[in-house]
Amino acid sequence: MKLKQRTIINEFAIDGIGLHTGKISKVIFKPAPRAGYGIRFIRTDINNYPEIKAILDNVSTDCMTRRTVIKQHDIEIYTIEHIMSACFALGLDNLMIEINTNEPPILDGSAKIFTEHLLKAGVKSFNHYKEYYFIEKPVYFITSNSQIYAYPSDNLEIKCTIQFQHPFLKYQTISLTNINKQFYITNIAPAKTFCFDYEVNMLRQNHLALGGSLKNAIVISMDGIHNKKCLSYNDEFVRHKVLDLMGDMHLLGKEIKAKIVAEKPGHKSNVNFLRKFVKNALIGTKSPIVESINNES
Q1: Are 66 and 55 in contact (CB under 8 A)?
Q2: Among 4, 45, 178, 279, which one is least packed by beta carbons within 10 Å?
């Protein structure tokens, strides 16, 4: 069975503080006008409402510390990964997102609220088939800090591992072989972003995490977790890395049919891996043998 491209039915708005800029922002999610439109962010605070398409070619790798940034004609949007992750999991290929500043709200630090609102907005299909990427041989990207591999597979699988020299976050790993909408809602979307307490001053000196708080990020110290009650899972940190990876993968604009194995992934390594992946991938419209992320209504 071939799958059709999707958008939402009803528009809605969300507002809140941006994680890194500390600015209050409002985003309005609207149905895309047509298939092939993609996901576009529209800056309503700038004359002529410039659009930035959320695609790999528009990623700004020179300012990707702790966030994914898209840029076009010197106009930027920061920290789009949680929105993109929710769209990825719900199979939304086309969406118009108006925003009145340069960073969407961080909300509770996860993709849960975005996912819930997108579900409530309803989903409709266009009379146009989705495309997906598949590979015939392994693709890998390796740096001193991160390793990401892709292997041929008939469906999307993800294995992710993180490891730190820290007494309270030494090692976490997760393997996902049956990724679908409901699995994401229950097991990935609520996973919150995190940082170590010794990083906070450094981040803020670099004009990052200005809107961060114990309400929207899990903060880890040498003595434990400052806001442990905010945890949704014992292995929350590796789940959030998967959430971010899914968001970055949606910058390809197509489904991925491969087994992804990621060790200590981050936004910059994710994007560099995806650039190498797409150069070695083929494109088709045939759906995976097993149920894909988008197969559920």
Answers
A1: no
A2: 279
DSSP sequence for 210-276: TT--TTTSEEEETTEETTGGG-S-TTHHHHHHHHHHHHHHGGGSSEEEEEEEEES--HHHHHHHHHH
What is d(CA 168, CA 185) in angstroms, rounded to the nearest whole number? Answer: 26
CA 169 – CA 162 distance, rounded (Å): 9
CB-CB contact of 251 with 56 (8 Å): yes
If DSSP states are collapsed to H, E and C, what string results for 152-180? ECCCCEEEEEEECCCCCCCEEEEEECCCC
pLDDT (0 to 100) of residue 294:
47
Q: Which tokens in the block code for residue 209?
A: 């995490």
* Model pLDDT for residues 46-98, shown as the tens digit of each residue: 999 999 999 999 999 776 778 999 999 899 999 999 999 999 999 999 999 99
The reply to whether 207 belongs to the active site is no
**What is this structure's pTM?**
0.93
Q: What gap in Å lies between CA 208 and CA 213, rounded to an integer? A: 12
